[in-house]
């Protein structure tokens, strides 16, 4: 399918804002701030009073690749849809969406330039503040409101129909939930983990669990998800003395398994812990996972009495939450593994002076989380697992010779 629409250049953003009824005729300064792979982002600032907004537009291709890699711009509609649904139940957790231009696949939203991406803060040794709690509340409110507990049966079917996001789901199905376990040109890894890559590919038990997680991702249409909720999709900062947290970039949004959003976030917090550990910073393994799970669970339980369909009783709630928990652990493990041996890696690990020990630690934890996801009882058990996978016997915490020759000798 070809898409004909106006692709905005910086010089056209002020006119776009006026056309959309946003701001009048005053002078506006525009700067392009795109640094992601897929889309263009501009920040527009009024010269008279300094008020500003961000304009994000999806191109009919991958921004950094150009027209040779086409991609449907309808991902912007998925982003706008997710923002609207979250705004109805947890407005403080996302940027305010001022406008969505469906013809031109462009959003006008709150300017977040004064905030910082959480991953960058963590990489520099900063803390999470309330980010994990915000993630738990975000997932609980969005998922309850868009599940069969929060919507009537007919509304749910309409949501399912309007929220299909096939192209972006396929990226996750391939990059996260298949390719790392296959020989694929996308995969790459540090030679110091080559033995684990080979072992994971030959690991039939792991393969079956990934197949299960992949199928649940494809077929487990529980609620509307963010779809890409990692530490690079969260901005943090302070405004007027109060902490501000904004979860952004929900273009992968679709109706899927609730545990996927939590798990993606957990995988990234575990990678951040592996970095912190490697740099000798003190860490409490699994602390952020625990925080976001507790926030999610308590908020979901708080909402439960409002469910529309009371055939779902309290005993079912316990079973349901148990399933979300084990799914989330599995997706956390899959996210860790794909971020070390798959297509897209993490600055958390890549920028370490020696990424090998931390990567091995995280890869080992990832596999364990996947295989043991139905028997790990609670966040405390996960904390113990993460502590155990950090022991020298498993991660080879000693300095290793990671030259090609050194790796060959170890094999
Ligand atoms: N509302 C906003 N206000 C200010 N800056 C923003 C805003 N939204 C995005 N940005 C900037 O643009 C960058 C890219 O944004 P975003 O991640 O939404 O784009 P993307 O193309 O979807 O990225 P990705 O390839 O990671 O999916 C952010 O890292 C941030 O620097
Ligand atoms: Mg994006």
Q: Which labels suit this protein?
A:
single chain, about 400 residues, alpha+beta, Aminoglycoside 3'-phosphotransferase, Chain: A, domain 2, 5-stranded antiparallel sheet, 3-stranded antiparallel sheet, 12 strands, binds adenosine-5'-triphosphate, binds magnesium ion
Quick summary of this structure?
With 411 residues, the chain is of the alpha+beta class. Helix content is 47%, strand content 13%. The strands form four sheets. It has a five-stranded antiparallel β-sheet with strand order 1-2-3-7-6, sandwiched between helices. A three-stranded antiparallel β-sheet has the order 8-10-11.
Please describe the topology of this protein.
Layout: H1 13-19, E1 28-32, E2 39-46, E3 52-58, E4 61-62, E5 66-70, H2 75-89, E6 97-101, E7 106-110, E8 116-117, H3 118-123, H4 131-145, H5 153-162, H6 166-175, H7 194-201, H8 204-219, E9 223-224, E10 234-239, E11 242-247, E12 255-256, H9 259-278, H10 287-303, H11 314-341, H12 347-350, H13 355-371, H14 379-388, H15 392-395, H16 404-410
Antiparallel strand pairs: 1-2, 2-3, 3-7, 4-5, 6-7, 8-10, 9-12, 10-11
Helix pairs in contact: 4-10, 9-10, 9-11, 9-13, 11-13
Bound molecules: adenosine-5'-triphosphate and magnesium ion.
| Bound ligands | adenosine-5'-triphosphate, magnesium ion
Gyration radius from CA atoms, angstroms: 22 Å
CATH superfamily of the largest domain: Aminoglycoside phosphotransferase (APH), C-terminal lobe
Structure summary, number of beta strands: 12
Mean pLDDT: 94
- CATH architecture of the largest domain, please? Alpha-Beta Complex
Helix proportion range: 40-55%
């Amino acid at each position: 399918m070809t898409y004909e629409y106006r692709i905005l250049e910086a010089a056209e953003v002020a006119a776009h804002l006026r056309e959309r009824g946003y701001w009048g005729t005053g002078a506006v300064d525009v700067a392009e701030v795109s640094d992601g792979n897929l889309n263009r982002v501009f920040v527009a600032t009024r010269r008279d009073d300094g008020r500003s907004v961000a304009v994000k537009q999806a191109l009919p291709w991958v921004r950094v690749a150009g027209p040779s890699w086409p991609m449907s711009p309808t991902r912007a509609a998925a982003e706008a849809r997710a923002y609207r649904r979250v705004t109805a139940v947890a407005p403080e957790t996302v940027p305010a969406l001022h406008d969505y231009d469906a013809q031109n696949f462009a959003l006008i939203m709150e300017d977040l330039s004064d905030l910082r991406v959480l991953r960058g803060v963590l990489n520099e040794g900063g803390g999470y503040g309330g980010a994990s709690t915000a993630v738990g509340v975000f997932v609980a409110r969005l998922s309850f409101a868009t599940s069969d507990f929060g919507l009537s049966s007919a509304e749910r079917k309409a949501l399912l129909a309007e929220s299909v996001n096939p192209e972006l789901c396929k990226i996750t199905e391939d990059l996260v939930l298949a390719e790392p376990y296959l020989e694929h040109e996308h995969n790459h890894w540090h030679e110091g983990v080559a033995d684990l890559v080979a072992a994971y590919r030959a690991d039939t038990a792991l393969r079956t669990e990934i197949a299960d997680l992949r199928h649940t991702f494809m077929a487990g249409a529980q609620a509307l998800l963010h779809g890409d909720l990692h530490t690079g999709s969260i901005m943090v900062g302070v405004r007027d003395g109060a902490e501000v947290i904004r979860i952004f970039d929900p273009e992968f949004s679709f109706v899927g398994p609730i545990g996927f959003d939590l798990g993606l976030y957990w995988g990234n917090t575990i990678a951040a812990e592996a970095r912190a550990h490697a740099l000798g910073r003190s860490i409490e393994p699994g602390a952020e996972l625990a925080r976001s799970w507790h926030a999610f669970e308590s908020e979901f339980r708080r909402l439960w009495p409002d469910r529309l369909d009371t055939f779902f009783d309290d005993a079912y709630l316990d079973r349901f939450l148990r399933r979300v928990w084990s799914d989330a652990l599995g997706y956390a493990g899959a996210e860790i593994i794909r971020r070390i041996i798959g297509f897209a890696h993490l600055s958390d690990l890549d920028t370490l002076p020696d990424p090998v020990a931390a990567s091995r630690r995280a890869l080992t934890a990832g596999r364990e989380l996947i295989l043991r996801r139905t028997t790990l009882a609670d966040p405390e058990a996960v904390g113990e697992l993460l502590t155990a996978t950090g022991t020298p016997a498993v991660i080879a915490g000693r300095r290793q010779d990671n030259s090609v020759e050194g790796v060959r000798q170890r094999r």
